[in-house]
Specification:
Length: 352
Amino acid sequence: MSRFWSDLTHSLQPYVPGEQPSMTNLVKLNTNENPFPPSPKALAAMVAETGDNLRLYPDPTCTALRQTLADYVGLSKEQVFVGNGSDEVLAHAFQALLKQDEPLLFPDITYGFYPVYGDLFGIDYRAVPLADDLTISVADYAGNNGGVILPNPNAPTGCLLTLPQVRELLQANPNRVVVIDEAYIDFGGESAVALVPEFDNLLVVQTLSKSRSLAGLRVGMAFGQAPLIAGLERVKNSFNPYPLSREALAGAIAAVADVDYFDMTRHTIMARREQLSQQLAELGFSMTDSKANFVFVEHPSLRAADIALALRQRGVIVRHLDSHPRTVNRLRISIGTQAECEALVLALKEIV
């Protein structure tokens, strides 16, 4: 630690991202990356943008991408915000919308960046315990608060709130912003974007990292009524007016437009998730009802840490989330290629 650090820097407990090992020939199922390559049309669009134009700044308003996204979801471009990955979009939402007098509410088992942002931006927050079955109870988020943020499906559980449940959550918090973080919504859920015209307190955050195989491009977006989006723009333009590169803008527009490829890949992943869940159940594992591109499992007689170590010794990496006592014996396993899933099952058969 440096003596020149501020008191805030000393106090922070940074978010720890999933391991990105440098070893080769690994079955890497720890960071929920899409096993399919990006859309060929997106790759071609990015290549086409790589040239003399890179000497010029990208469009700071990202107008073409915002319009593409607006057309895709049935909103106006004034109801769309884009940023450098959904993590940056979330950071702007914390600063612009969720820094209130009362505590911000989010689940106690959820995306680990929420408490990090709360500490970084000086936001009071309260973690709301999940139900015994690791689902979110909407009734727990009613009452006085400074806003609500939760992933849907939740991470790492994969459990989904239905659209009527999201509506109930919004109705219970009419005077506070509700942020629905939909990083995994395309793998089995119904997006809350459909509720944006009805609720002025709703912000829906999405990403191209998961269902469109562009985790390396860093493109995130938010949908909400124009005043909420204007708040995000005000923070963004006080921080970085050029959040997306020319290549990112071109690739994102093409990826969103390539609906056929998007549907083919996500439906394949969903089918593979159900197949893997059945195979794991036959090996004695129990799991949540995940609607994401991962499963969240535990074994009745083997410790999760021991399973993770044994898998690593066989060249398979999964995520052991041991920071909470209710998840210490669980593993989050990404849905990989068919060959990767088969390698996982074969290794687990040896271990179990």
